[in-house]
Amino acid sequence: MKYILDVHCHSVASGHAYSTITENINYAKNIGLKLIAITDHAPKMPGSCTNLHFLNLNILPKKVDDLEILTGVELNILDINGKVDLPNSILKSLDLKIASLHPPCIAPSDNINDNTEAVINTMKNPLVNIIGHLGDPRYPINIDKIVKASLETNTLIEINNSSLSPNNTRSGGKNTILEILNTCKKLNVPIILGSDAHYHTYIGNFDNIIPLLNKCNFPEELIVNTSIEKFKNFYLNIL
Questions:
Q1: Single pTM value for the model
Q2: What CATH number corresponds to the domain at position 192?
Q3: Distance of CA 45 to the CA centre of its chain
Q4: How does residue 233 score in pLDDT terms, banded at 50, 70 and 90?
Q5: How many domains in the chain?
Q6: Is 164 helix (H, G, I), strand (E, B) or coil?
Q7: What's the domain range around 47?
Q8: Cα dihedral 122, 208, 175, 144 in deg (nearest 10)
Q9: DSSP single-letter state for residue 223
Q10: How far is it, in rounded angstroms, from Cα 67 to Cα 45?
């Protein structure tokens, strides 16, 4: 299976990532990707950039050689109501919006109902395209409800390669991620793979995810990373 896009990539602007946007673009191009998104952390993440960074992303080229480049952000989910940390006026100017639960921005909780409601309310925001790195053991969720909400709101669930690294702060969620995959397969709900690269050589790397895809025999047609057309069918606003 060939994956040609990665839409979860950070640059030095995130504060704890270590490659420039140019390094990210050049690496993605050199490994044969056809599309990437630059998705730095939104302002509530400590050390990240301000609103101005996202307002000015329109200066980036839309394409470098055969590589398409999307402007984007990884938003922070701030509360149970699904509030995020950029105003709609800025979100509308960006091609792609991921929203994720991060401990610096919303306290970890064992309350499955609250965590689930926070995610589903975020999915109801039509400006949010993807929910990032579900399966974090610090935020247990009702998987069935969230997968159904993904289908209802046309919000993709990301399977995050970094979360499956043993050194990651989100490690320990392998079984939950496998359950997410099996539920998406059962309900015919598409997913997107994300590297969550914080250094350019991790872009396009889904090596930690592939064993889980194989284990549950996950259908290729439900993975949007295999086709730009398949990916864009979910997001008419970026065509």
A1: 0.96
A2: 3.20.20.140
A3: 16
A4: confident
A5: 1
A6: helix
A7: 5-238
A8: 30
A9: B
A10: 29
